[in-house]
Specification:
65 residues; mainly alpha
């Protein structure tokens, strides 16, 4: 599995994912807020399957796996 998520992308995914999870846990948003788990998981693994399918890569050249 090659890394395809760069640092800025990773930070944004982590923040957005955590915010969505908290909002879903508080009942502020509906069930779709739990989709934040996907954003957090992709941030932790630094791999996005959708990016791989679309050929997108935000990871710098020197740190690609």
């Amino acid at each position: 599995m090659k890394l395809n998520i760069g640092t800025i992308d990773r930070i944004l995914r982590l923040i957005l994912g955590l915010v969505l999870i908290v909002l879903a846990a508080n009942g502020t948003v509906g069930w779709w807020g739990w989709l934040g788990l996907v954003a957090v998981a992709t941030a932790l693994f630094r791999f996005c399957p959708l990016y791989a399918v679309l050929g997108i890569n935000t990871c710098p050249l020197k740190s690609r796996g």
